Amino acid sequence: MTTSKTTPATTGLAPEAMKPAVKRLTINHVSRIEGHAKVTIKLDDAGQVTDTQFHVTQIRGFEKFTEGRPYYEMPSITSRICGICPISHLLASSKACDSIMAVRIPETAAKLRELVHMAQIVQSHALSFFYLSAPDLLLGMDFDPAKRNVAGLLAEHPDALRDGIVLRKFGQQVIERLAKERIHPSWTVPGGVNAPLDPAAREKTLEELPAAVEIVKRTIALWKNTLDGFPDEIDSFSNFPTMYCGLVGPDGSLRLYDGKLRFVGSDGEIVADQVRPDDYATYIAEATLPDSYLKAPYYRPVGLADGIYRVGPLARLNVADRCGTPAADIELAEYRQRLGVGAARRIVQSGFHYHYARLIEALYALERMQELLDDPAILSTKVRAHAGVNNLEGVGIIEAPRGTLIHHYKVDDNGAMTWANLIVATGHNNLAIGRGILQVAKRFVDGNKIQEGALNRISALVRAYDPCLSCSTHAMGTVPILLQLLGPDGEMLDELPRQ
Amino acid sequence: MTEKVKVRIDGEVIAATAGQTILEVARANNKYIPALCYMEGLSAVGACRLCMVEVAGAARLLPACTTPVQEGLAVATSSPQLQSYRKIALELLLVERNHVCSVCVSSGHCELQSLAQEHGVTHVRYPYNYPRLSVDTTHPRFVLDHNRCVLCSRCVRTCAEIEGAHVWDIAGRGIGSRLVSELQRPWGEATSCTSCGKCVQACPTGAMAEKGWGVEEMTKKRAVVSRLTTMREGM
């Protein structure tokens, strides 16, 4: 029978881990993800990795307990799924409600919604890159785990960390200026937004934008110089062919707030384009996996086995023809030139490059903010449409920071919810994360010689996707990722629990 | 001729008219007594028990909204004991049904929420009841969410005493009491409802709201409802 031991927060492997006689050991937790997960690694007799499983272990049941609620409450209810990007759920939900009301929201309302979304993209991408992943990326995967965190970053790369803090603060403050609250604002409503843009908020944001752009440009330059230090990670972090999905505009350019779905194959060929939100279910089906509360969406036309696709920054930049803003397009061209392969379009395949793609998107978001704020229509006071129930079903899709977010509602004649389906970014990426864990485990985990750095790479792979597991299952509680190493007979050899 | 009396509220001698309630006299003289079910212009029912006061010589606490003043009455509107009881009353209201301010249309404009804040209710000391309650969405313009109803009966009295339609009643007893429209008909099918919306405006929480408003958006015109009585009395 195995034994267990809990170690202090700052240590890596427990001392017992290094002794072959001990069958189970406890390793310090992996943090810096949003939500809960467990990873199981199975070994053969020779101690080599044979299989892995990615379990998301909690459920909250938003789709069920919202039944009976008035549909127009859905934005505020579903935004409570997550405190990191509540704006995403607010927007997707509001769009689904717009569809139920059958209204075309005022032009300015759409621009304001996109503006707050861009602010959210900036703050969320800054959070992912600087706060969650930079300890791995700038300090190194094998850096002392006791210092591989924001505090360590402060000691080693204070300028980069300061940039991250300033950038995230900028995004958060723009959200606050627009929506009055940084987290869970009530500003975005079915039919538009409930207050016009304050001209002073516009001026202040325009004043601060150039500094934010400089931070992102500086960080992209830093990352381009750092990237080559991770050849093994680039090679093994979900570096396999999948399909990709994201919203694009009518001209195929990147869209984050509004657009139609495009799916491209692993070689970059477009397999479905300009898919209306209402038709998403023709292309996306959801499978239920054992041992995980997170469903696994797949590309319906080819089935579960071959229908694995990815969403999020990496996927969006693979799907779009261009960003549509000047500086981001220059960076996109270099990114594709440097990392892309494929005939139909240059596809960037390694999941490690989510980080790079995230930075390019942050630049795009800032440029788009500038465009929106420069538009005189942004100050119009006509920002809301009112209507009752005109459709009994509505779908709202946006590109959340982590990927495509779908809210699909059905209501009765009186507007009471009868059914809801939410497909969040991490759900779309579920199969890819699972397969990516197997790839990285095979590369770095040796059952006879487990190193903390190897296990950290598994967590880093998960982090590259910036998964929001609390969104994906709408989970609650503390935030662990639990790694379990199982022998051929299923006995637990190693465990990496969050304390 | 109306009889004048002198009462003492929190030590201050105040001239009042016989027949006035303690709450009316107190409010007319800027003495604050919290209340939830009381609304100016409606009859008083003493349902919420938040306006309980200490009356000298009385062995128990008395509701200020239904206790008439009399000569020499001495009232204490605030004391540690009263504060404690009021806090308990608020906590019991909060645990009885499903009050979730974060997603409520009336958050920020809710009398229950304000009273809870005012009394320092940062948490509740009793287990939540979590009843499974319905939302009546059948009316084309308004919605009734039983989860947020505190059974103050302001809607019942507004409809009966001001509008004269008497659509609403309280059915059942004790914790099983429910607001019902027209003898258990769905609100949208209540033939006596004139859709005037005064019940919605009188509701102190988000239990009754206009359809279509999002979280924090439902502000109510309670003073308008109260003023109707005053204006009619003057006619």
Going by CATH, the homologous superfamily of the largest domain in chain A would be: Cytochrome-c3 Hydrogenase, chain B
CATH class of the largest domain in chain B: Alpha Beta
Task: Return residue spans of chain A where pLDDT drops below 50 for at least 5 consecutive residues.
Answer: 1-32, 472-480
Main pleated sheet of chain B: 5 strands, mixed
Tell me the overall shape of chain B: globular
- Structural class of chain B comes to alpha+beta
Provide a count of the helices of chain B.
Answer: 6
- What is the CATH topology descriptor of the largest domain in chain B? Alpha-Beta Plaits
Q: Percentage of helical residues of chain B?
A: 25-40%
* Average pLDDT taken over every residue of chain B: 95
Q: Which CATH architecture of the largest domain in chain B?
A: 2-Layer Sandwich
| Shape summary of chain A | globular
In CATH, the architecture of the largest domain in chain A is Orthogonal Bundle
Order the strands across the largest sheet of chain A as they lie in space: 2-1-14-15
In total, the number of strands of chain A is 15
Distance linking N and C termini of chain A: 22 Å
The percent range for strand residues of chain A is 15-25%
Distance between the termini of chain B: 21 Å
Task: Write down the oligomeric state.
Answer: heterodimer
Give the strand content of chain B. 15-25%
Question: How would you characterize this protein structure?
Answer:
The complex is a heterodimer of chains A (499) and B (235). With 499 residues, chain A is an alpha+beta fold. Chain A has 16 helices and 15 strands. In chain A, the strands form five sheets. In chain A, strands 2-1-14-15 form a four-stranded mixed beta sheet, covered by helices on one side. Chain A has a four-stranded mixed beta sheet with strand order 7-6-5-10. A three-stranded antiparallel beta sheet of chain A has the order 11-12-13. The longest helix of chain A has 33 residues, at 107-139. Chain A starts with 36 loop residues before the first strand and ends with a strand. In chain A, 54% of the residues are buried. Chain B is α+β, with helices and mostly antiparallel strands. Chain B has two domains: 4-78, Ubiquitin-like (UB roll); 96-233, Alpha-Beta Plaits. Chain B has helices spanning 22-28, 80-96, 111-118, 154-163, 198-202, 222-233; strands at residues 4-9, 12-17, 52-55, 62-63, 74-76, 135-136, 142-145, 168-171, 178-181, 208-210. Chain B has a five-stranded mixed beta sheet, covered by helices on one side. Chain B is globular, with a radius of gyration of 18 Å. At the A-B interface, helix 2 of A face loops of B.
